[in-house]
Amino acid sequence: MKIRIGFRASVIILFLCLFLGSLIVLNAFFINKYKQSNEAFKNMKFDQSLSTLTFKTTQDSLKAKELLNNFRQSLAATEMIQHEAQIYSAVFLFLLMLISIFIFIFVLYKITKPLKELQSATAKIRKGDFSVYLPETGIKEIKELKQSFNSMSRELEEVQKKLLQAEKEMIWKELSRILAHEIKNPLTPIQLSIQRLEEKYEEDPEKFQEIFPDSVKIINQEISNLQNLARSFSTFAKSIVPKFTNFNPALAIEEILKPYIHKYNLILESDNDCFISFDQTHFYQIITNIVQNAIDASPENNEIKLKISNEQDSTIIQIIDKGKGIAPENLPRIFEPYFTKKKKGTGLGLALVKKLIDVNKASINVQSEPGKGTVFKIRISSKMNISAEELE
User: Fold this and answer.
1) SS3 letters across the chain
2) Number of neighbouring beta carbons within 10 Å of residue 378
3) I need a surface site. Which of 11, 138, 199, 225 has the fewest CB within 10 A?
4) pLDDT-derived band of residue 250, with 50, 70 and 90 as boundaries?
5) Helix 58-126 and helix 140-203: axis angle, to 10°?
6) Burial class (CB in 10 A: 0-12, 13-18, 19+), 293
7) What is the distance between the alpha carbons of residues 182 and 292, in angstroms, rounded to a whole number?
């Protein structure tokens, strides 16, 4: 079985060998110098030679002088040995320090270079580039880290592809649901107009002749609305960009309500003649969705009121019903996609209303009390409005 020593263990072993080897060398060096010093002192034999002299003859004096000179030479040699020991030990320690610094820099480089590569690769991944690959080289720990990083990068790339595919499918599913929901709104007035024509045709042919032009006009108008919806949804996947036009909201709402008024109790109140700047197709979708919700929530023949008024620097459009209302716990969620309490609802109508309100730089809020009804209030800023006089 092959045993691989890790990087940290290798560095520790290297420093231990370096310092133990240095201590052994220094110890041998000082022992050698110590022996040299002892030899120098032994060679002097100063005490033994001096004890044999009586200093009574000239020869004894010359012998003492010679011994003193030898002693001084031995002392000088000993001092030189000590000085050499100091110099060599200082040089050796300096070299040891340089080697240690070099090893430290080398180790630091071996660690920081791969870390910088990892940092750069991580930045690319953060920007969405999952095709990053790091060469699996270096010390054991760094190599294993790079292998893990490359494995993670490949997995993220696969996950990104799956997410993109799932997102595309989800977008198209949502679009198809929204489109199916929005098509129902123009179909309702068409159906009501045809039913009205059938009833009058069988019951009162003369009345049929009277309502026929208006009914055909309504049907043509709703077909035109369907065409506009189709054009809008053809670009919906890219973005919703409103085409602002100036129009009178009261007149626009009158046209929207025409198919409903013969069957439902809808009342429009308007105390101003201002023109708003808004996307007309979006305006139609917003009002139709809210009115249809009010009809669904209200008992038969209950009054549904639409009010247009000026409030400070805004035009306010209110849709007021006296239906069953919305529970307090559900009120914050009514604009969430797919949230609905209707048995056959999709939960997309009010979500689309909120989206269209936002892109047209307006605002909407809802007040409701269970059992008493609901009020939808749309606020269109005066910066987006134009008065009738300015339009002329």
Assistant:
1) CCCCCCHHHHHHHHHHHHHHHHHHHHHHHHHHHHHHHHHHHHHHCHHHHHHCCCCCCHHHHHHHHHHHHHHHHHHHHHHHHHHHHHHHHHHHHHHHHHHHHHHHHHHHHHHHHHHHHHHHHHHHHHCCCCCCCCCCCCCHHHHHHHHHHHHHHHHHHHHHHHHHHHHHHHHHHHHHHHHHHHHHHHHHHHHHHHHHHHHHHHHCHHHHHHHHHHHHHHHHHHHHHHHHHHHHHHCCCCCCCCCEEEECHHHHHHHHHHHHHCCCCEEEEECCCCEEEEEHHHHHHHHHHHHHHHHHHCCCCCCEEEEEEEECCEEEEEEEECCCCCCCCCHHHCCCCCCCCCCCCCCCHHHHHHHHHHHCCCEEEEEEECCCEEEEEEEEEHHHEECHHHHC
2) 24
3) 199
4) very high
5) 10
6) buried
7) 11
* pTM of the predicted protein model: 0.47
Architecture of domain 242-392: 2-Layer Sandwich (3.30)
The pLDDT score that the predictor gives to residue 390 is 46
Domain ranges of the chain: 7-129, 242-392
The answer to whether the CB of 54 falls within 8 A of the CB of 20 is no
Other Cβ atoms within 10 Å of 248 Cβ, number = 17
Q: Taking the CA atoms of the chain, what radius of gyration do you get in angstroms?
A: 49
Q: With contact defined as beta carbons under 8 Å apart, do 130 and 153 qualify?
A: yes
If 0-12 CB within 10 Å is exposed, 13-18 middle and 19+ buried, where does residue 349 land?
buried
371 pLDDT exceeds 80?
yes
The string of pLDDT tens digits covering residues 179-191 is 666 677 777 778 8
CA distance 361 to 20: 78
Look at 201 and 331; give whichever has higher pLDDT.
331
Largest CA distance in the chain: 175
